[in-house]
C-alpha cells in the first residue's frame, strides 16, 4: 500500500517536472537568455572579454572562482574543513601504538605484482597532481582537483602497504599542521587587500603599474591554489585514517 | 501545443529530460528503500542530476571550453563559464556531506547493530 | 557535441542509476556507483567543461567510491 502511494505521487511529480522542462528555452542556442543574460546587464560577456586582463589568469573559470566570485570559494574551503572537524568529532583520531585495523590480513599485501607496480607508479601520480595544481591558471585543473588526486595516491599507498606501516609514514603530529592551511591562507590573502587600501579579496591595486599588478595577482592566485590543493589532500587522508581504525571499545 | 511540438522540444532539450528522470530515480531511492547506505546513494544521484541540469543550461552548439589557448581569436564562441564555477563548489560540498554522513553511519552501526531505518525507528520508542 | 554519442551516454546513465537502485548487494551498488561517476565525467567533457570533468573523475573514483567501500566493510554487506 505504501509503495503504491509513493509511486503515484512520484509519477505526478515527474509529469509536472516534464512540463516545466519542455517549456524552457532551447538548449545550445547561442542567443538565448541563459547564455547572454539580460540585454545590457549580462555578466557573461564581461567575464569572457575582460577576465584575462583584470584577473591575470587564462583559465576563465579559475578567474571566476578566485576573483569575481571569491566569497563562494571562501565558504567552500570552510565547508571542507568543517567536514573534517565533524568526522573527527564522531570518530576520534587514531593513536600510534594502540590502533590497529583488519587490513593487516588483506591478501593484496603479499602479492608481488601489486607491490611492485604501486611502488613504481606512486611518484608519477604525485607529480601529476602537482602539475594539475600549478597549471590551474593556464589550463584545466586547479587547486581542489590536484589535491584530490594526491589524496587518492595516498589512499592507494595505505591500502597496499598496510595500516601500521602507513601510520608510521604519515604520523598524526605531522599531519595536524597542514590540515587547516586552506582556510587560513585564503583569509590571509584576502586581508592583504584590506591592508593595502581596497576591499577584502582584491588582487590588483591602483598604486602599482599594470604589469606589476599582473605579477602580484598571478602569484597570489598561485599561493591560494597550492594551499587549497595541499590542504584538501591532507584532509581526505585524515578522513580515511579516521574511518579505518578499529580500537573503539 | 500539439504532440509533435512537444516531442520535438523534448528532443532538443534531451539533457534536461534525462536530468529530471535521474532526479526522480534518486528521490524514489531516498523515500522507498530501507537501508541507510542505499538512501545515501540516492541522495548522491539527486545531486549529480542537479549538476547535469545546471551545466546543460550553459552549453552552446559548437562552443569551446572557456580557456584562452594558443590561436583563439577574440570572436570565438565560448560556453557559459558561470554555471561551471558554481558547480565546482557544489561538487566539493557534496563530497564533504558524503564523508560526514558515512562516518555517522559507522557509529550508528556500532551502537545499534543495524542499519535499517524501520528497525531504528522501532528501537527508539522502546 | 557529437550528438549520437551524447544520447547513448545519457541513456547509459539512466540504466546505471536504475541498477544502483535495484541491487540488494551493497558492494555491487557501490562499484556501479563508481561506473555512474565515470560516465558522468565523459558527459561533462562532451559539454565542454574540462574542469568539472577532472573534478568528477578525481572525486567520484578516488574519494566517494573508496569511502563507500570502507563503510560497507565495517557494516552490513547485504541490504536485508
Question: What this model shows, in words?
Answer:
- The complex is a heterotrimer of chains A (249), B (126) and C (80).
- Chain A has 249 residues and is mainly α.
- Helix content of chain A is 70%, strand content 0%.
- Chain A is built from 11 helices and no strands.
- Chain A is globular, with a radius of gyration of 24 Å.
- Chain B has a single domain (3-60, 78-124), classed as Helix Hairpins, CATH 1.10.287.
- In chain B, 71% of the residues lie in helices and 0% in strands.
- Chain B contains 5 helices and no strands.
- In chain C, α1 (3-22) packs antiparallel against α2.
- Chain C is flat.
- Chain C has helices spanning 3-22, 26-46, 50-74.
- Chain C has one domain (3-74).
- The model of chain C has no long low-confidence stretch (mean pLDDT 90).
- By secondary structure, chain C is mainly alpha-helical.
- Chains A and B meet through α1, α3, α4, α5 and α11 of A and α1, α2 and α4 of B.
CATH architecture of chain B: Orthogonal Bundle
Please state the CA-atom Rg of chain C, rounded to the nearest Å.
Answer: 14 Å
- Content-based structural category of chain B: mainly alpha
Q: What distance lies between the first and last C-alpha atoms of chain C, to the nearest angstrom?
A: 43 Å
Question: Layout of helices and strands, plus pairs?
Answer:
The complex is a heterotrimer of chains A (249), B (126) and C (80).
Chain A: H1 2-22, H2 33-36, H3 44-55, H4 60-68, H5 70-90, H6 112-134, H7 143-161, H8 163-169, H9 172-179, H10 181-195, H11 210-244
Helix pairs in contact in A: 3-4, 4-5, 5-10, 5-11, 6-7, 7-11, 10-11
Chain B: H1 3-12, H2 14-32, H3 36-56, H4 82-112, H5 117-124
Helix pairs in contact in B: 1-2, 2-3, 3-4
Chain C: H1 3-22, H2 26-46, H3 50-74
Helix pairs in contact in C: 1-2, 2-3
Brief account:
The complex is a heterotrimer of chains A (249), B (126) and C (80). Chain A has 249 residues and is mostly helical. Chain A has one domain (59-244).
Amino acid at each position: 500500500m505504501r509503495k503504491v502511494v509513493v509511486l503515484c505521487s512520484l509519477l505526478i511529480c515527474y509529469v509536472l517536472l516534464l512540463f516545466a522542462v519542455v517549456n524552457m528555452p532551447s538548449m545550445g542556442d547561442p542567443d538565448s537568455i541563459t547564455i547572454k543574460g539580460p540585454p545590457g546587464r549580462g555578466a557573461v560577456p564581461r567575464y569572457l572579454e575582460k577576465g584575462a586582463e583584470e584577473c591575470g589568469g587564462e583559465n576563465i573559470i579559475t578567474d571566476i572562482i578566485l576573483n569575481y566570485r571569491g566569497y563562494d570559494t571562501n565558504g567552500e574551503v570552510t565547508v571542507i574543513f568543517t567536514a573534517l572537524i565533524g568526522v573527527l568529532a564522531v570518530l576520534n583520531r587514531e593513536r600510534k601504538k594502540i590502533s590497529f585495523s583488519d587490513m593487516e590480513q588483506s591478501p593484496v599485501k603479499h602479492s608481488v605484482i601489486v607491490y611492485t607496480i604501486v611502488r613504481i607508479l606512486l611518484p608519477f601520480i604525485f607529480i601529476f597532481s602537482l602539475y594539475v595544481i600549478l597549471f590551474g591558471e593556464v589550463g584545466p585543473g586547479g587547486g581542489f582537483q590536484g589535491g584530490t588526486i594526491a589524496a587518492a595516491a595516498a589512499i592507494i599507498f595505505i591500502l597496499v602497504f598496510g595500516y601500521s606501516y602507513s601510520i608510521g609514514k604519515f604520523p598524526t603530529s605531522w599531519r595536524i599542521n597542514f590540515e587547516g592551511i586552506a582556510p587560513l591562507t585564503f583569509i590571509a590573502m584576502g586581508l592583504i587587500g584590506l591592508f593595502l587600501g581596497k576591499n577584502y579579496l582584491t588582487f590588483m591595486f591602483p598604486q602599482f603599474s599594470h604589469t606589476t599588478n599582473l605579477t602580484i595577482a598571478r602569484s597570489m592566485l598561485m599561493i591560494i591554489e597550492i594551499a587549497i590543493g595541499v590542504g584538501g589532500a591532507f584532509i581526505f587522508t585524515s578522513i580515511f585514517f579516521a574511518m579505518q581504525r578499529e580500537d573503539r571499545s | 501545443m500539439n504532440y509533435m511540438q512537444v516531442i520535438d522540444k523534448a528532443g532538443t532539450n534531451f539533457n534536461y529530460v534525462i536530468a529530471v528522470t535521474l532526479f526522480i530515480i534518486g528521490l524514489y531511492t531516498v523515500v522507498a528503500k530501507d537501508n541507510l547506505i542505499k538512501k545515501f546513494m540516492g541522495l548522491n544521484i539527486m545531486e549529480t542530476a542537479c549538476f547535469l541540469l545546471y551545466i546543460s543550461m550553459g552549453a552552446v552548439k559548437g562552443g569551446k571550453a572557456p580557456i584562452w589557448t594558443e590561436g583563439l581569436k577574440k570572436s570565438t564562441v565560448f560556453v557559459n563559464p558561470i554555471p561551471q564555477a558554481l558547480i565546482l563548489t557544489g561538487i566539493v560540498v557534496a563530497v564533504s556531506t558524503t564523508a560526514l554522513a558515512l562516518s555517522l553511519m559507522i557509529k550508528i552501526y556500532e551502537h545499534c547493530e543495524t542499519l535499517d531505518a524501520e528497525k531504528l525507528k522501532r528501537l527508539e520508542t522502546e | 557535441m557529437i550528438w549520437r554519442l551524447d544520447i547513448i551516454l545519457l541513456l547509459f546513465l539512466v540504466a546505471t542509476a536504475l541498477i544502483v537502485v535495484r541491487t540488494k548487494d551493497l558492494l555491487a551498488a557501490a562499484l556501479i556507483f563508481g561506473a555512474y561517476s565515470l560516465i558522468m565525467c565523459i558527459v561533462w567533457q562532451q559539454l565542454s567543461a574540462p574542469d568539472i570533468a577532472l573534478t568528477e573523475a578525481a572525486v567520484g573514483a578516488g574519494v566517494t567510491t573508496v569511502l563507500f567501500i570502507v563503510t560497507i566493510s565495517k557494516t552490513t554487506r547485504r541490504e536485508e
